[in-house]
Design brief:
Helix content of chain B: 25-40%
Oligomer: heterodimer
Number of domains of chain A: 1
Structural class of chain A: mainly alpha
Strand content of chain B: 15-25%
Radius of gyration of chain A: 19 Å
Distance between the termini of chain A: 10 Å
Structural class of chain B: alpha/beta
Strand order of the largest sheet of chain A: 1-2
Radius of gyration of chain B: 25 Å
Order of helices and strands of chain A: HHHHHHEEHHHHHHH
Helix content of chain A: over 70%
Distance between the termini of chain B: 56 Å
Largest sheet of chain A: 2 strands, antiparallel
CATH class of the largest domain in chain B: Alpha Beta
Shape of chain B: globular
CATH topology of chain A: ABC transporter involved in vitamin B12 uptake, BtuC
Number of helices of chain A: 13
Strand order of the largest sheet of chain B: 6-7-8-3-9-10
Number of helices of chain B: 21
Largest sheet of chain B: 6 strands, mixed
Chain lengths: 313, 513
């Protein structure tokens, strides 16, 4: 896997994104306005945070299906810690994020310690964490947060949605971590050949646990932002989020078999999906039509990567 | 008259190859090879790894198609497009890695793909089981039940099922690829009886093996392949071991293995009563600076398992390891590496390299701390080291250090694995089959490199299945069998007989006990 091939997939996808943006701009006058684009950024943040770390997870050859449930659990806990336990909201949110992060750690621990395939382990915790969220919430929602809390999900800093700043910072950090550090290199090596990585003395299990823990953290952070954006907590928040995140990652050129992928690809994938959803709905196309189109694009992206790999093999 | 006619017929080859050639890309693996097998003949096929034996076998069994030359079955030109064609022409193969389905029964495996059928394509299980029983009985395997699942059988039993399967295709020629490589002494004797009974029934056998005693005990004729060429075919009565070896290798052992004199220094590794499972039992030895310690043994004798235990992949359950005099505990490869051990594993593609990654990235993999003292990778330093390593070890790569290692030849891949471990500046280098699947030129380079490293004070453990390599390169040879040490032989006393004898020695002492 060389840098050239990586760039090729992402360059093509970026071109697709540009063409898409231009085409959508012609479809609807509202689409290509600053206000609309920034608002789309706001809507994209939660999936974005999760998808960035999902990129790491998938590069190691794993998958994390439990992120949507972790998001839901964190959201519920934020409300419960604040309202029922009477903690200051800041502490309540912090504690909820800590719990969400721990949920991620549990995924990593189960996968490495007991050798459970990530698909199975996180399928189990998807049910487990969602069940916990529903049990704790008792179908009640928590509302009426103090005004300062809404700055996170509904406010702007320097004219840009607050959470978009967080996403940008997160993306930069993740890109650097993946491309230029020891842990990033280990992540690629583990995904490409776990046995050889282990035989080379790389800390395989520790790296995997770290990655799943980070995935839990990203989902938890997204959960708090979600609560702030929609002003309420419900136990079904984030249902299906994992699939949106995985779609963006795979569309962005990350191999589902591991060993290959990049944060920038995932970001472009996110932009493509979000602008399709928004642009097509502005152009008056129903959501079902958008879903079909995204499905087709995903198949196209996978065929494209497979074609590249065949030529290399 | 009749007997004369019979004799005449027996001398006519059943299958004949003439002028066969085969290339993979630019590499010519077979050059103008001619070969034949007569009915009722055991024809031994000898050659080093990479000599072209497997390619020739695969052409005979329909897996590969020759680029040039002709194949004749009973005098008729024939081309096999698939393995099924070869089966239909009476050629069956028993591969080294037995290709049975572990979850199916003996009878199911034997008739897989050509089950006896009843009306409307239904499988006639009664007939299948009865015929399977008949076949096994004809091989004197009365103890093998046709309804047993393959997974529960021993290697030797599975092999008999494979042979029965071959016979179910009404094989006239049976190709056996290193059939005794993973068998115990007792099973080898039994297999040889089976082979002889097949011969008596008029089946021609191509017997691929490295083991001289078996060849001399069984074969009628012997052919030697080297570098894709058929060196010679002769009657076994006109061959002796020394000539066969020199035909295989092409030059004498001394020329091939240039182990130089190295100053043997202080002990760096002391292993005492090391245990892990069945294949590492009570192993004790000492390794010194500048020394090459060869480890010899049959497949399954515990050679690789010992290396895995030393390197912390399957940590020792008891026993003591001392590195430079200090008692240590090695539970992971990471700890082993930090103690100055390096392990070049047996399976290069699976364990040694990340094939999709570049030479550059593979070279730094075991020594990432050196190019990333903090969190960040120093790409300039990484590239500088890679360029240096590639030059020093003579790794040939068209696209330089950024070429994916999967695109390199076997020999160059192996050099990358060795270079990767040298980057960690080890004191102890364990090489597991360092020249397997490597061409003759690269092999000599790897041997020269070992010699050089030993001269610089590195202590080397070399595991090898090739006796000439072990004998030629080692200062001392530790011989294993069934997970135990059965001999420690000094360079001066090392001959194929002494080492080979020790390789099977323990089984005898066990029988005596």
């Amino acid at each position: 896997m060389s840098l050239r091939t990586l760039l090729r997939h992402e360059t093509i996808l970026a071109l697709v994104a540009v063409v898409l943006l231009v085409a959508l701009a012609f479809q609807s006058a509202q689409f290509f306005t600053g206000a609309n684009l920034l608002n789309q950024g706001r809507l994209m943040t939660e999936v974005g945070l999760v998808a960035i770390i999902m990129t790491f997870v998938i590069i190691t050859g794993g998958i994390d299906l439990s992120v949507g449930s972790i998001l839901g659990l964190t959201a519920i806990l934020t409300g419960v810690f604040w309202q029922n336990l009477g903690l200051p909201l800041m502490a309540a949110a912090g504690l909820a994020i800590a719990v969400g992060t721990f949920c991620g750690f549990v995924n990593g621990f189960v996968i490495t310690r007991f050798g459970v395939p990530p698909l199975i382990a996180t399928l189990a915790t998807l049910a487990l964490y969602r069940g916990l969220a529903e049990g704790i919430s008792q179908a009640r929602s928590v509302r009426g947060y103090p005004d300062w809390f809404y700055v996170l999900g509904q406010g702007n800093i320097l004219g840009v949605p607050t959470q978009l700043w967080i996403l940008i910072a997160f993306a930069i950090l993740a890109s650097v971590l993946l491309a230029a550090t020891r842990i990033g290199r280990s992540i690629y090596a583990i995904g490409a050949n776990e046995v050889a990585a282990f035989f080379s003395g790389l800390p395989v299990n520790r790296t995997k646990i770290a990655v799943y823990t980070a995935s839990g953290f990203a989902a938890a952070l997204a959960g708090v932002i979600f609560v702030s954006r929609v002003s309420t907590t419900r136990s079904d928040m984030g249902t299906g989020l994992e699939l949106d995140a995985i779609t963006a990652v795979v569309l962005g050129g990350t191999s589902i078999y591991g060993g290959r992928g990049s944060v920038i690809g995932t970001l472009i994938g996110l932009v493509v999906i979000q602008s399709l959803k928004n642009g097509l709905s502005l152009a008056g196309i129903k959501a079902e039509g958008t879903a079909v189109l995204i499905g087709l694009m995903l198949i196209g992206a996978i065929l494209m990567t497979t074609a590249f790999n065949k030529r290399r093999a | 008259m009749a007997s004369n006619f019979e004799q005449q017929r027996a001398l006519e080859p059943y299958v004949r190859l003439a002028g066969i050639s085969k290339s993979f890309g630019p590499v010519k693996v077979l050059k103008d090879v001619s070969f034949d097998v007569r009915p009722g003949e055991i024809h031994a096929l000898l050659g080093e790894n990479g000599a072209g034996k497997s390619t020739m076998i695969k052409i005979l069994s329909g897996l590969y198609q020759a680029d040039g030359g002709v194949m004749e079955i009973e005098g008729q030109p024939m081309r096999f497009a698939t393995a099924k064609d070869a089966n239909a022409s009476g050629i069956a193969t028993v591969y080294q890695e037995l290709l049975l389905f572990p979850e199916l029964t003996v009878a199911e495996n034997i008739f897989l793909g050509h089950y006896p059928q009843k009306a409307m394509g239904r499988i006639d299980w009664t007939a299948a089981r009865a015929k399977a029983r008949e076949l096994l009985d004809s091989l004197d395997c009365h103890d093998l039940h046709v309804d047993t699942r393959i997974a529960t059988l021993s290697v030797a039993q599975r092999q008999r099922v494979e042979i029965a399967k071959a016979l179910s295709h009404k094989a006239r020629i049976l190709i056996m690829d290193e059939p005794t490589a993973s068998l115990t002494e007792k099973d080898v004797t039994r297999l040889m009886e089976v082979v002889r009974s097949l011969k008596a029934r008029g089946v021609g056998i191509i017997y691929v093996s490295h083991r001289m005693p078996e060849i001399f005990a069984l074969a009628d004729r012997v052919s030697v392949l080297r570098d894709g060429m058929m060196i010679d075919t002769r009657d076994i009565t006109e061959a002796d071991e020394a000539t066969l070896v020199s035909m295989m290798v092409g030059r004498s052992i001394e020329q091939l293995f240039p182990k130089g004199e190295a100053k043997i220094g202080e002990p760096v590794l002391d292993v005492s009563k090391l245990n892990h499972g069945r294949l590492v039992q009570n192993i004790s030895f000492t390794l010194r600076r500048g020394e090459v310690l060869g480890i010899a043994g049959l497949v399954g004798s515990g050679r690789t398992e010992l290396a895995l235990t030393l390197f912390g992949i399957t940590p020792a359950t008891s026993g003591e390891i001392r590195v430079k005099g200090k008692p240590v505990s090695i539970r992971t490869p990471r700890q082993a590496r930090d103690l100055g051990l390096a392990y070049v594993p047996e399976d290069r593609g699976l364990q040694g390299l990340v094939k999709s990654m570049s030479i550059n990235e593979n070279l730094s993999m075991a020594a990432l701390d050196r190019i990333a003292p903090g969190l960040f990778l120093n790409f300039a330093e990484e590239a500088r080291r890679a360029v240096e390593a590639v030059k020093r070890l003579g790794v040939r790569a068209r696209a330089g250090i950024h070429q994916p290692v999967g695109e390199l030849s076997g020999g160059n891949q192996q050099k990358v694995v060795i270079a990767k471990w040298l980057e960690t500046r080890p004191d102890i280098l364990i090489l597991d089959e360092p020249t397997r699947g490597v061409d003759v030129g690269a092999k000599a380079e790897i041997h020269a490199m070992m010699s050089d490293l030993a001269a610089k004070g590195l202590a080397i453990i070399m595991i090898s299945s090739e006796l000439p390599e072990v004998i030629g390169m080692s200062d001392r040879i530790l011989v294993m069998n069934n997970g135990q040490v059965t001999g420690m032989i000094d360079r001066a006393d090392a001959t194929p007989e002494t080492v080979g004898g020790a390789m099977t020695a323990q089984a005898k002492s066990k029988e005596a006990a």
